[in-house]
Description:
The protein has a domain at 41-76 and 90-189. The protein is globular and about 50 Å long. A two-stranded antiparallel sheet has the order 1-2. It contains 8 helices and 2 strands, in the order ααβααβαααα. The longest helix is centred in the N-terminal third of the chain and has 26 residues, at 2-27. It has 206 residues and is an all-alpha fold.
Amino acid sequence: xxxxxxxxxxxxxxxxxxxxxxxxxxxxxxxxxxxxxxxxxxxxxxxxxxxxxxxxxxxxxxxxxxxxxxxxxxxxxxxxxxxxxxxxxxxxxxxxxxxxxxxxxxxxxxxxxxxxxxxxxxxxxxxxxxxxxxxxxxxxxxxxxxxxxxxxxxxxxxxxxxxxxxxxxxxxxxxxxxxxxxxxxxxxxxxxxxxxxxxxxxxxxx
Length: 206
């Protein structure tokens, strides 16, 4: 599995990044602003959120040959190009469809990445010795499903009101899923879920 994911992380964006950009240009009949907005949003998100989670908060870590600290420098294109392609495929459907698809697809991907050792997540389920499914379920619905909701709804707003809303949509996609995650973490684990939890003992913040 590790070999397959190691190949995927380079092969997939090499194919999907130009393909998804072309598909969005075709979808919008050459409207460069809307096409680039649809394509670029998940790429930027996948650099900012995981970049902070790995190198600032240190609760995620990639174990790959190419790394900037704990972060793989091509991660934005690994996630973003696949996400832009999925979004194009379901374009025109209600935004919950994209939220569900991204939540499920990235849950499955992260479980495989955790099992292969490419990804490490030092959250509360990990500190309790739980398996990869529990570790991934702690964050994937909020970050990936939440991003899918913001991406789908925000994309619809840009289509209606113009690509000038790009910065607003990007900010909402960064803030709202993260807010949902930290609130649920506080309710479930009695801490905000934004620091590494030691696996030698349960450390709870009040």
